[in-house]
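Take a protein:
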Amino acid sequence: MEYEPDTTTGVRGVAAPDDFAVVIDARGLVMMWSAGAGRLLGYRREEVVGRQAAGLLAARLPVSMRRHLAAWEPWTSDVVLRNRHGDRVTVQLRGTPLVDTYGGPHWIVTRAVTTYASAPTDAGTAELWDLTLAQLPLPVAVYDSEARFVTCNQVMSQAMGLTPQEMRGRTLWEIYPTPPMDEIDRLQHHVVRTGEMIFRENQPFRASGEVRDHAWSLFLSPLKGPTGAVSGMSALVIDITEQYWARRRLAVLNDASVRIGSTLDVTRTAEELAEVAVTGFADFASVDLLESVVQGREPQPVPPGTPVVCRRTAKRSVLQGCPESVVRTGDTDVYPPGSPPAQALITGRGSHYSVGDPPLRAWTTASPARAESMRRFKIHSVMMVPLSARGITLGVMQLLRHRTADPFVPDDLTLAEEIAARAAVSIDNARRYTREHRTALTLQRSLLPERLPGAEAVDLAYRYLPAGSGDEIGGDWFDVIALSGGRVALVVGDVVGHGVRASATMGRLRTAVRTLADADFTPDELLTRLDDLVIRLDREEGPETRGQAEEASGEVGATCLYAVYDPVTGCCDLARAGHPPPVLVSSDGTARVLDLPAGPPLGLGGLPFEAARIDVGEGSLLALYTDGLIQAPDRDIDVGLDLLSETLRRPAADLEDTCDEVLRTLPPGPPADDIVLLLARTSRLGADQVRTWRLPMDPAAVAGARKMAAEQLDSWGLAELEFATELIVSELVTNAIRYGNGPVELRLIRADALVCEVSDGSSTAPHLRRARVFDEGGRGLLLVAQVAERWGSRQTSLGKTIWAEQPLPREPERDDGRPRANG
């Protein structure tokens, strides 16, 4: 290539005294060796290229030069080299830093010159320099003092898409009046005006005829004359396109790793995937998941040759409202066999299509709505990317381009597959969590009471609020148990841990409490026996059973509050095992947290539980709850208790409204733990509902007891129960007098059932046995069991009480169809 001298400035190309030029890469290896370098040191090109440049040094580099090398700054310094014959050669060199396509530094080392004002006097040397410039594999251009183009080498001409003759005399902005050339043109004018050297990297630009952006590192260096005045400038560029696109892809991947999978929610994870895809490289993205994945079930491989049903789980677009989509979010779509999305689901491999490709054209024309969307929004490029995790395909992501002029290329598909693979793992994790969450919730709800028992002694209301979707189901539970004598037991507990195991443990403890309550244990004795059960469960379900060998004993644990209310006496016996204390609101509106002995949590063993008895007035409100109600990360537990007491003190229409008001007031946000709230408004049985007689220790008293019981039933309007009641009274009183100790007491209670109780001073529990044919006794309790709906015994502080319960007869209806009260 011929270079004509600039008659104005005296610049001939980028001429130098000789053509000494060496390119050294980041590892210190010689990458290019010019003929001038060979003449100076005597080495042929093949003897030097690919070897360490340090082998050419005959002395240590100057300190100032080493500092510039470490800072990757241009330098000019005297360097002592060793030629082929071993002689020392001192030469002044100039080093210019460059950037390769992978971001590593390159150095172009040339002879340092003090002037470019005159052309080489030696014609041969000038020719060699021109050849070096022309054949340099890096784009180089020369501009005059007004930043107007003078000449360039062939590589630069190809990059610009114009010949030197077409560009000569024009500024860069006049050559290419498109960004970012305006900024580069401004920098070039700055260099020729100030004489400062400028380096810039990552300058994206698309040349004429290119289908994607290129990126360049730009080095602008002033050319100075003998007086130091700037006569022109040189521009050298390094193509870093691959590095540029690699950084773009890495940025999208980093964005995906941060934004996708922030929750254990399938839908939200799919939405995050669509958002990242549209932000990164697509104009529209949709995520369609198999129905089984959305529901949290185990997905099955899609058989070839069958239609595939997917649910549109998420979509995003650069256009408001996603108008390109022909399927609404939440609706299902059927992909016929052989269609692009079905192929991606079946094969597990992604693909990209242009609008005219036969598979895409056949699929879109089969749906008028899809064909109209393609035409209306000028969709020209489509990608189908499967969402696969752990060997199973979960769904497919569809990506479209219509506002972006570039079609999808293989690099885009690689990026999309990488993002989809990461997102699929998060979606599968969310699916697995959803399945376990639903299983635990179903198990827990099946173990909790479906409805509270009807009890005349108390009005009841409850709320059970499971933890939000970001947490596992816990082991909170509650129960209401009808006891003998019209009494009622209220239970609230909380098992340590979360998930299915905690729910299963909760079910076992709830069953145990019911069994122990039926045996009429006192609250403290019941908790003691429950504590023994938890310890036994922990031993049986050791670390090996739980599959966590590193865990120590103590994994199974719980807290519990057990209360028994007696409507006859108006007293309530309570005991707690590490559980928050209940709140009692009296009928006058006074609220207080009951000061009960705390007791250790269940599972520690060896520590006693204490029961307390409180007098509960008529119309009082007793609130039992789990710690999820009063605890919050930014609130002290005492503040939660005060807030609960204040809320319960407010008047409400009924207990249901009170429950709603508590849940509106206390939890500061979605619950991090399960919440149980159980409210009981107490009432006492009237004097006309209970009748008690003290009986002498005389067999003759049995007849009198039968007569008194019959008379009381007549007064209550329960004459139809007289025969069975007389039989029960006769057998129970006879056994108490014959086998027990005094005093003997008979009590009848008319509440939601008719209860007959006989108490004596003996602690010996009765046993139901089958009498032989010729036995004179042993049939009493058998007869009682036949005529009573249920019967049992309980220990008291003075001895024992044997009781039998009969259902009340159905109340006759009045003329208006409503039941008429008996008695």
